Task: structure prediction
Amino acid sequence: MDDILQVKNVTKYYNSGSVATKALNSISFSVRKGEFIAVMGASGSGKSTLLNIIAAIDKVSAGEIYLDGISLTEQKESSLSVVRRDKLGVVFQEYNLLDTLTVGENITLPLNLKHIGAAETQKQLKRVADALGIHDQLDKFPRDLSGGQRQRAACARAIITCPALVLADEPTGALDSKNAKLLMNCFEQMNQKLGSTILMVTHDPVIGSYADRILFLKDGNIWNELDRGGRERQELYRDILSVMAALGGDLGVH
Amino acid sequence: MFTRLALRNVRRQIRNYLIYFITVSINVALMFAVNNVIFSQQLLEYMAAGSPVRGALIAVTVFAALVSAFVLGYATAFLLRFRKREFGTYLTMGMTRKNILLLFLLETLFLCVVALIIGILLGLFLYQGLMALVTALLEVEFSFSLCSVKGLLLTAVLSGAVFLLSAAASAGYLGTTRIYRLVQGDQYTHHGNIHIRFWSAAAFLSLAALIGGCIGFSVFLDQMYHNTTAPNPVGIIISGIAAAAAIVLLHISLAKSIVGLLLKSSCLRCKGTAVFVLRQLSGQLSANAVMTGFLALLICGTVIGSLSCFIQRINVKAYLETYYPFDMVASNDMPEETASVDYTKLESIVSRYVSIRQRVPYTVYIADSSCLDGAQPTDSTALHFLRQSDYNKLYQLRGAKAIQLADEFLILSRSDMKQDWSGSRLTLEGQCYAYGGTSGQQSFSPPYSPVLIVIPDSAAAKMKVEIQGFVYDLDDQRFDGMALYNQLFDMNIQNLDVSFKESARQLKNSSSASIIVSILYLSAVFLFMSMALLALKVLSGLSGDRQKYRLLYRLGIGEREQKRTLFQQLFSFFFFPYIFPALMSIPAVLIAQQLISLDGYGADGRTLRQVAILTLFILTVVYLLYFTAAYFIAKKNVICHGEPECMP
Result:
């Protein structure tokens, strides 16, 4: 099996004074290359903690994580920066584009950090801009774009280095339903046309139904797992709703 | 409640207030030192022109206080902006703008009171240093100086006035700024590059104007000095204003264009966080273009000010050397042989102050200017002559070699007299004398003729006597020349015309010292205020930077790379208004050299360069101190180490 991400018995505690809160409880799962996986759960279920740990911006209390064969739990902070830069692409809920940089500059920033030459940078920029349909927005500043356009630019930034894994944290959280749908089409394209492996955290069953596989978290545990298995999106959506109902219906469905 | 909250805020915000605190403390220390010099009894007794000097220095301190008040008022707006979210929270909690203003004023009041105390303590040392400088300038012995109550009071009053004025500026800012703007703050975003060509052209023209202004200043200076009949300073003033305006405009246009031009380099854009740094810099420079222009002008003023101090000092020495080649010259004040002077009385009074080592008699003769064929020394119809024997005796006192004239004459003029005497011929009693050269010595008498013609003794045999007198060589010890001069003036010795090098030295030194102290004080105030403005401007933008650096961290930029990026961003912004003023020291040294040379004092290029280098060194040290403080505060606030706040 060609696993890009392996999460093995990961536990995470947060200490607040003398009280320790268990955010993740010995979670294990893996993500295959080219897979589009969604993680769903209620607030406080541990999905953001899981994302932060995989994104190498938080540390585990116990367990191991392997990203593209590299152990994230054994790396120093300086090496983790390199992992974040080279192996990961992240799409945030609030776009997190730098307002001082143009859209093109925002997208090519990860390549600049890797000191890729000007010609190669332009080639890669054209590739992702064409794939995501934002080639006419490259010279604009983020404030001149709509929310959907900004999020597509953030996606382009996330995939321009061809990372091993793209992490998306509630990517449609700040978008209306029309733009959310456009963005998910964009994610499908990234996954199918560009071969990106995507791990997405979401509340929304409609958004979750775009994934190949869905993990449901509850109280820091993987409570359930759904696999598309050749089903249509509508079918998967209904199954997600069923799981959510069984879960307690407290996922905050929009 | 507000007092407690204000005290707690000061404790919590002490790191962010550091720059403000350092600046106010240094400002108070400088003010305290200068005010004590103004009211120093020891100096006033020595300074011949005491009262006007004191008045002028008080005017300078008041002016410096006004500049400080303006800058600190401007700076407090940065502090307000830096804490905009906190104030926004207070507003949403139901506090009024007046409450926030009161809170902020209480905080700054606490800081200013502590800064006043520390500043005065620091000022005690600075005062001794300043007194050492002033006594060195006055060429009197330095002794430990006591502080004056008046100096302390003036410092307290001026510090209070500075605080009130800057408080009024804060009140104005808080009163007029919309809540939304207070919460959102400035958005430093560079929007496109549509004006880059315009601003690049403006930068090019400004640079040309700056170079033209410097060249024009030099040319007009030269013309003014050579046109002794009608010197016209208009050209110099226009060139100076043009150069000053060009410096401001150059910085404004560079601030708006240079980053845009650099961003066009595809090679540069690919290097790590270079684009991020350039865009950050572009926003900061564009938003503060006018401020950086005026800061550059102030820093130029500091460089030029230090050179002016040196020129002033050179001028005093050269003036004394030119106009007072001998310790004392006494003569009859009437152009008649009959006017006799009681030299015994004069010498007995002088002996009370200083011992007379030697006295040398001399006679000045007069003749109609028609006897000289060729250049004429003055517009006067008369020429003044000195016998060769008198010249040899007199100038032996200054270590000159004896001369021997044969059918020729020698010109003895002041060094500021530029005239070509070659080819001139003198005819006295039917005898012709050729021009035999110009003496390297300075003419000493009479005051209404800067040129004496030295002739063979035989030529003066039948000439009319104009003045008879004595040149005195006095002991090297320092004495109160002004007191001696005043005593002689009070005694009113009949027909006596006397001049002392020592009284002239005292008079010149006191005016020179007050000018130098004023220039140095203003330069120091300008420098510290400029640094404070830059540092506080940097800090006011930190809350926006914090978000950006957190994003960079999430994109995989490690702590070390973040620090490097922040360093590049702050360093470029901080040193932007420093580079041209530093370069301006080159033309400033050349013009200063020219000015000294035109004054006929012999240009001391090496010392001038040393003064300029020393000034730049001090400037750089102060710059680095403020930059380091600003960088460390920024680093603490901005750099993301992976702490929970960095999480999305």
Notes: The first strand of chain B starts at residue 328 and ends at 332. Chain B has a mean pLDDT of 81.
